[in-house]
Amino acid sequence: QVQLVQSGAEVKKPGASVKVSCKASGYTFTSYGISWVRQAPGQGLEWMGWISAYNGNTNYAQKLQGRVTMTTDTSTSTAYMELRSLRSDDTAVYYCAAGGSGLMRLWGQGTLVTVSS
Amino acid sequence: DIQMTQSPSSLSASVGDRVTITCQASQDISNYLNWYQQKPGKAPKLLIYDASNLETGVPSRFSGSGSGTDFTFTISSLQPEDIATYYCQQYDNLPRTFGQGTKVEIK
């Protein structure tokens, strides 16, 4: 079955870091990149960045530069998104999505990250 | 950044109605435009890519058109299961940007 399965919900304090995982199955992991998109409560979709699962090349949203790192582990077909120096406005559902660098064809189920003191 | 402006922000229509959503880009994006459907509490789902190509498995009542800066998404005959928020997204430039969404409800 072709799917992306994400790690579970997280609660973090301001200033902490979070690392969300996204495990792919049912397709050749290195054939597509992984985009990360987040959605704050009641808000729209925000693109965070993209990583090529083939060679590890990345593109990040400028507003997150310096705080976000996207990586992949081809041995386990898993992508990771780490966000550091968390703030309350980072509270959101975080999605991974497989596809080309601009196309999000297959989505994970989402991971709620709550930042609260 | 390329701004994507969708209209309307919400709409209410009857089952069987034709529904049209527009998306305007702040600059020419050729046909690098996708449409997604998001049902409450669920991940988005790709419906249309490259402005007018129907994703595999998506019902043919969904369609898209346009190029340059002006795009249209249409549901030819609204069904109860189409209740969702719809987003356009450009991928001509980085960062990829989404429209603000259009919430579709049944009248």
What tags apply to this protein structure?
heterodimer, A: 117 residues, mainly beta, seven-stranded mixed sheet, 11 strands, 50% strand, B: 107 residues, four-stranded antiparallel sheet, globular
Using CB atoms under 8 Å apart, which protein chain pair has the greatest interface?
A-B, 23 and 23 residues
Topology pattern of chain B, helix = H, strand = E: EEEEEEEEEEE
How many helices of chain B does DSSP assign? 0
How much β-strand is present in the residues of chain A? over 45%
Describe the global form of chain A.
globular
Instruction: For the record, give the distance between the C-alpha atoms at the N and C termini of chain B, rounded to a whole number.
Output: 36 Å
How helical, in percent, are the residues of chain A?
A: under 10%
The stretches of 5 or more residues of chain B where confidence is low (pLDDT under 50) are none
- What is the SS-derived class of chain A? mainly beta
In short:
Chain A is mainly beta and 117 residues long. Chain A is built from no helices and eleven strands.
Structure write-up:
The complex is a heterodimer of chains A (117) and B (107). Chain A has 117 residues and is mostly beta strands. Helices cover 0% and strands 50% of the residues of chain A. Chain A has no helices and 11 strands. In chain A, strands 2, 4, 5, 6, 9, 10 and 11 form a 7-stranded mixed sheet that branches. The model of chain A has no long low-confidence stretch (mean pLDDT 97). With 107 residues, chain B is mainly β. Chain B is built from no helices and 11 strands. In chain B, strand 4 (33-38) and strand 5 (45-49) form a beta hairpin. The radius of gyration of chain B is 13 Å and the shape is globular. Classes of the chains: A mainly beta (117), B mainly beta (107). Chains A and B meet through strand 5 and strand 9 of A and strand 4, strand 5, strand 9 and strand 10 of B.
